[in-house]
Fold this protein.
Amino acid sequence: MSEFTSTKPYMIMAIHEWCVDNQLTPHLLVEVNAQTRVPMAYVKDGEIVLNLNHSATKDLYFTNEAISFSARFSGASNNLYIPISAVKGIFARENGQGMFFEVHPEDLNENKNNDIEFSDKKEKNISSEVKKTTLKLVK
């Protein structure tokens, strides 16, 4: 019997879509590790909360291995890369509804080589039109 793929990336995408469909602001809670690429100045206690609204991101792209997008922090554009294994939760800022996950240290080591594969897939992504890019840090 073959192994099934994880349901986690599908749940993340579904909650993101639910937030957008209901005019809510999707936020991602991420445990920062060596494979996670985020602006370290905004990391608190090893975690960062990111606004995943289409108006706050550019080239938002989901795969079963990672989430990637560009966002502005203090006016500077940053390319972010979040392995799915580092995602602790996705929720609506307005009401806190969403889904949270356990992050296991052994899961964080699985994605060491997914960077290259993910970058190749991102090149094929067709970006949607973005009016203004902003990112708000939620504490």
Notes: The helical segments are 8-21, 105-108, 114-122. The chain has three helices and seven strands. Residues 8-122 form a domain with the SH3 type barrels. fold (CATH 2.30.30.220).
